[in-house]
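ok so for the tutorial part 2 we go from a plain amino acid sequence to predicted structure tokens. step 1 is just haveing the sequence, like this:
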Amino acid sequence: MGKRAISRRAWQRATNALLCYPENLREYASLVEELMTKKPKEEGKPIHKDPTADKAIVLYEDKRFRRIQDEIEAVEEALSHLRPGEEIIIRRRYWELPRHRSNSPRQYDFLQDLPYSYRTMQRVVRRTIFLVAKMLGE
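step 2 — the prediction. this is what the tokens look like for a chain of 138 residues:
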């Protein structure tokens, strides 16, 4: 793996996507559920005769929904490119550690029970962040 550089903004966006992945999944599911259970408005004429198609169009046009969907897809795609067993590093570092410890300088000390060296864990995290940033178009 050669040296690759991404901007600080891209690194922060990818890290934020990883940190917020569980919350984004819950929010995504609640947005879909909320829209699918909501009754169609009577005041405006629907674009299609099918109310589900109208709801899908509303979801697609919502910027927040698209951002969450893009971040979820980017994280899932990056996780699918990891070797077997490496996903646990990302899962524990970003989703199981308290958020205030996930960016501390000693963040890998909390993962010492894993069968990976400190340097290997850094490589896995860096590779995952690069993949998420790439999937987000950064």
